[in-house]
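Journal club prep — side note

Before the paper discussion, L.F. wants everyone to see what a predicted structure for a comparable chain looks like in token form. Sequence:
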Amino acid sequence: QLLEKNVRAQLRYLSVDDRFVEMKLIDGPYQARFPFVKIERSNIVAAIKPISLSQERPEAIIEHANKWAYALRRLRSAGKLPGNILLPTKMPEDGGKRTIAYQEAAAMLRDAGGQVVAERDTAALKSYVTQH
């Protein structure tokens, strides 16, 4: 929730917060919540999903990323998501195995079509929202 609050503040700073709404995207029995979705002419054209990848256990970082990589693939193949999703992430601050797990998790999310950026990378957020 803190990540979402930070992203919302950045969208407000960029004066585009009113262009995004929260949505649950559904494919049959599966659903995933996206806090920032932009819709034009009944089509989702942009989606931002902040993801924390700073869990205490390295395997928890990978498991969380795997959950969202699955969600991205499933919802995209069902036509519910656009091709490029922005994923502002919180990464571990201490290095070691958690950082290695973060790097693996970020690669997994990129392979699933996510654009992984640091949670406070306002330039990347601005670039994404101006392109969409």
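L.F.'s comment for the group: The chain has four helices and six strands. Keep this in mind when we get to the figures.
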